[in-house]
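Researcher: I'm preparing a figure for a lab meeting and need a structural model of a single chain. I don't have an experimental structure, so a prediction will have to do for now. The sequence is pasted below. Please return the structure as tokens so I can convert it later.
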Amino acid sequence: LAGLRGGAGADPAANSATEKIASCLRSQIKDEGGVAVMVVLEGEANSFDQGMLIKRVLEMGGGMVRRSLAEIDEHAERGEDGYLYLSLESGERKRVDVVYYRAGYDPSNYPTERHWEGRRKLEESMAVKCPDVFGQLFGAKKVQQVLCIEDERARLGAPRGSEGVEETWVGMWPLTDFPAVRAMVARGDKGYVLKPQREGGGNNVYGREVLPALDAMEEGEREGYVLMEAISPDVFTNSLIKDGEVKYEGECSAEFGVFGVACYGADGKDLLEGKGGGMGYICRCKRVGVDE
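Model: Understood. Here is the structure written out token by token.
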């Protein structure tokens, strides 16, 4: 953390993710006639960090609202200029300049045709999307697996044998050669994770459950998964506290993620004018044995 924040002696707790991400969203709202729309689930419970971000955008002089995909379908219409115009409770109609997806990453987020239609309206509009459908597909596990192939990385311009970088990676394999993949898992010399073609977590199969899951698959299902070597994080002793009480004390591992923002036009122009890049971080701790 100290290294990321400016070297030894820097404050490792300093984290400006909310401020910087809000600033980037605000920069793409053209004027008072436009808003940023945060796409959320109906009845979203995990809304506290969403509220912090919206509050900061409002404080910066921008407009930002939360809407579900179904609400977009019901209350937004395309204008002649290619932008969507959203009807608000106040009776105002606001141009949708920015779309920030906090939902729409899982098939269960599209329970009705109205949800699909809301997504179509957003994607076909002139709004800046975070991410657009191509960016979302890039988060699929298949892309991770392909990027583990050195020839593919070289084709995209990455230098071969990047010193230090490849040492941080684990193996990933498609299920195309199913007998070889199954035999590798059956040997049991390493831990594995079976990952579906989804963005984010929550859908993976771990450890001893992998082999039965492979055996239960129909041949046509295999293209929807990749196999990954399990990551073995450092283990340390820590206390997990909730509501002021220690709920667990013992072996834990941590997950560290870096927020980043990039925004480019169709012509490749940097719309943030060099103000993108690293935006802060998130560090989470969990007890050993908890997979997700």
